[in-house]
Each structure stands twice: as structure tokens, then as C-alpha cells.
């Protein structure tokens, strides 16, 4: 069984930027209910608690890794998302660097989408397999950089248009993808993309893609 630290490390050094982009895409407001799917130790829930004045916080993960300081504020359920149908629906549902770890990502995403309240939002981030580095390695070696054989936590690549299609089929309105986290430039021994080039070519130079969708209706 993989440890939480191994799963977190698989997101690379850009995790803080990815989390910030996911939260911005969620459009935080005071007094909302939040559900973090695949919450791990609760780092995202802690940030929401401390910065977003939530009405309620829910976290689910098949394994209980939640930190003790969050237990008074978070209603935690040790279940997979596919078994979470009985949970209360939430104003904001977050899947930050989660679906790439799942054996059945699309059934999990459908279950998550059904937990979004009318007027609410869901945010999904996952490795961006359209980076220049992924494209080069796929062409030269027949594999994706983000899903190399030695990267065991990553098992399910997710194309943005497939993620969007699944969310649309569940009745949500999907927004244009955003990108987060700076990738390294191929064949440069770890040099990062310059910010100017990354702004111009975000799909080629960003390690994560962030997709947000909303359910029609008033909150």
C-alpha cells in the first residue's frame, strides 16, 4: 500500500501553486460548505478553514490520514468517493491531484459531480499530459513523463476534454481549463520554463491542468 507521503510527493514541487490555483478556481466565499475528496492529511481543508470562513468542512479518503488538529472542524469519512453517495452535498467539491491515483477515475468523478449543490462548483486538478516534456517523451520513448513506470502512484492519465465531457454529462457547466505549476524544460538538466514563456504557452509549460465546473441554480 502506498503511503500518503509517497502520493503527495508524486505531485512534485509545484503543489503549493497547484493548490492556490485550485482554490482560486473554486471562487471562495464565506459560509460555504466544502468537500475535499482524497483529503489525505487535510492540508487543503486546513487552508480553507483558516482562510475562507467555511460553514462546514467534509473530507473523505479511503485511509484516515487526517491530522489531529483538524478533527474538531472536519467531518471525516474513511470511504472512497464511489461509496460517498450518502454524504451531504456541498457548495464546493475539490479533487486536487487525486484522479490520477484512482483505478476508476471516471466513475469517481461522476460520483463527485453528483455531490455538488445547485449553484455550487467542483474543481479538478490533475497532471497536464500535454506538456512539451510529456509530448517529447511519448514520441521518443512511448510513455508519458508524468506516468513513468517508476511513478507508481500515477495510474490514470486524464485528458481535459474527457474530464470536461464527464462533468457535462452530469449536468455541470464546464469552464476553460487553467494551468498551474511550472514544468522543467526538456534536455536542460532541470531548468524551469521562464515565466514569460509559460504565460504564453501554459499548456506546454505547466505541470497541472485545473478544470472548474458549476451546477446551474442558486446557492
Q: Helix share of residues?
A: 25-40%
How many domain modules? Answer: 1
CATH class: Alpha Beta
The helix-strand sequence is HHEHEEEHEHHEEHHE
Low-confidence stretches: 1-11
| CATH 4th-level superfamily | Vaccinia Virus protein VP39
Number of strands: 8
Envelope shape: globular
Q: Tell me the CATH architecture.
A: 3-Layer(aba) Sandwich
Class by alpha and beta content: alpha/beta
N-to-C span = 39 Å
Instruction: Outline the biggest β-sheet.
Output: 8 strands, mixed
Plain-language structure description:
The termini are far apart. Helices cover 30% and strands 22% of the residues. Strands 1, 2, 3, 4, 5, 6, 7 and 8 form an 8-stranded mixed sheet that branches. The chain is built from 8 helices and 8 strands. The protein has helices at residues 4-9, 15-26, 43-51, 105-113, 132-141, 160-169, 195-200, 202-205; strands at 33-37, 56-60, 74-77, 90-96, 116-127, 173-174, 178-182, 206-214. By secondary structure, it is an alpha/beta fold. Helix 4 links the parallel strand 4 (90-96) and strand 5 (116-127). It has a single domain (4-214), classed as Rossmann fold (3-Layer(aba) Sandwich), CATH 3.40.50.
List keywords for this structure.
219 residues, Rossmann fold, eight-stranded mixed sheet, 8 helices, 30% helix, globular
Amino acid at each position: 500500500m502506498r503511503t500518503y507521503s509517497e502520493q503527495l510527493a508524486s505531485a512534485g514541487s509545484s503543489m503549493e501553486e497547484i493548490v492556490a490555483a485550485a482554490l482560486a478556481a473554486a471562487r471562495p466565499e464565506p459560509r460555504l460548505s466544502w468537500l475535499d475528496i482524497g483529503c489525505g492529511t487535510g492540508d487543503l481543508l486546513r487552508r480553507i478553514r483558516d482562510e475562507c470562513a467555511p460553514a462546514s468542512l467534509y473530507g473523505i479518503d479511503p485511509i484516515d490520514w487526517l491530522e489531529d488538529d483538524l478533527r474538531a472542524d472536519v467531518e471525516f469519512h474513511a470511504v472512497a468517493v464511489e461509496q460517498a453517495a450518502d454524504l451531504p452535498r456541498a457548495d464546493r467539491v475539490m479533487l486536487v491531484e487525486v484522479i490520477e491515483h484512482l483505478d476508476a477515475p471516471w466513475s469517481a468523478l461522476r460520483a463527485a459531480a453528483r455531490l455538488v449543490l445547485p449553484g455550487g462548483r467542483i474543481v479538478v486538478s490533475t497532471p497536464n499530459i500535454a506538456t512539451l516534456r510529456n509530448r517529447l517523451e511519448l514520441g521518443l520513448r512511448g510513455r508519458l513523463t508524468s506516468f513513468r513506470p517508476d511513478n507508481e502512484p500515477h495510474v490514470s492519465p486524464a485528458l481535459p476534454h474527457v474530464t470536461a465531457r464527464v462533468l457535462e454529462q452530469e449536468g455541470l457547466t464546464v469552464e476553460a481549463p487553467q494551468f498551474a505549476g511550472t514544468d522543467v524544460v526538456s534536455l536542460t538538466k532541470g531548468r524551469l520554463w521562464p515565466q514569460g514563456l509559460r504565460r504564453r504557452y501554459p499548456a506546454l509549460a505547466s505541470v497541472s491542468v485545473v478544470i472548474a465546473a458549476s451546477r446551474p441554480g442558486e446557492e
